[in-house]
Amino acid sequence: MPGTLVAMPGVLPDGETVPVDGSLPATATAAVGARGFGVYVHVPFCASRCGYCDFNTYTAAELGGGASREGYADTVLAELALAARVLGDSPPPRVDTVFVGGGTPTLLPADDLARILDGIDRTWGLAADAEVTTEANPESVTPESLKLLRSAGYTRISLGMQSASPGVLAILDRKHSAGRATAAALEARDAGFEHVNLDLIYGTPGERAEDFAASLEQVVAAGVDHVSAYALIVEDGTRLAARMRRGELAYPSDDVAADRYLAAEAALDAAGLSWYEVSNWARTDEARCRHNLLYWTGADWWGLGPGAHSHVGGVRWWNVKHPSAYAQRLAAGASPGLAREVLTVDEAHMEDVMLRLRLASGLPLAVLDGVGRAGAERALADGLLDTDAYAAGRAVLTLRGRLLADAVVRDLLP
To answer: How far apart are CA 159 and CA 412, in angstroms?
Structure first.
């Protein structure tokens, strides 16, 4: 999203430079964590690259010199020490959530993931009820490793299932077997994880309606309390995009994606999981991903790791992407930040509308200007906003509105 560029020497085309010491403006640190504070930890390692993935991840062959899994926890802890110095006079009152993502975080030894979490606790203090999540590929965990992670303080795990169809998994270049994700979910429950999420991707070329129905059946049978389901997005530069350009695979269909979404809503709702964000369903309020809710409601977070993004007090910055460059900057005592942007009032409003409208709690109509209110009235007339919620002063998407969420957002913005 666009940000305000400050005229200064060395300005990068997509943001202003980050000071060598990583320092932030006093206006940004005046009330850190007032709306909640989270820590994101990016682990950039993968055993292999999925054909659809354009995340900042690296296989061993892609990594090159200057970075390794073995030393990665120490490098992350070095950035954490820098973060503590930056927020030294205005630390957050507590850490409400920690989310370790990737990549495949569970390629790191459980002891390393435990050390990182302990470092965060020692630096800023975990809230007594902190939500601590790690992502995992199903084949990268065992009952023993899951028990170690749970004993280290991880309370939630998010497993990349994507599909129950062997054919769909093959197209996506996933390495786990069709039943491994749900087996891992049961193992996580047995290990004592309070909350378990399964991720699904729908709309893959060649996926049949019955394939997705089988995926939903397996998710429900696994008894997880959270499900994320996203339409396949074909990103430039991926193997999947290249195969589509060559005509080997058909491009995803918007109509098929809509049908799959409706199937997901019907199956998950019937199983007792309710939507709370357009692509996310939870069995209870406690099962909702609190870390993602921090993002969606404009709270503060510090992102540790190569390519990680952070946000504190209206200032957003992002780290250098390659693990070697990230490690080299920290070894030299410098911030790994590549660039940053300061959100204007208008930009912050745009993001607030875009993100909060996707939530089941919706958006207060009072935050909309005249153009936005006129757009909301059109959306209401078209059946895209809930009538009762609108009468109570909130813009809340209907099921049809969820299918057209991006269009509704555009209509609410100047």
So the answer is: 35
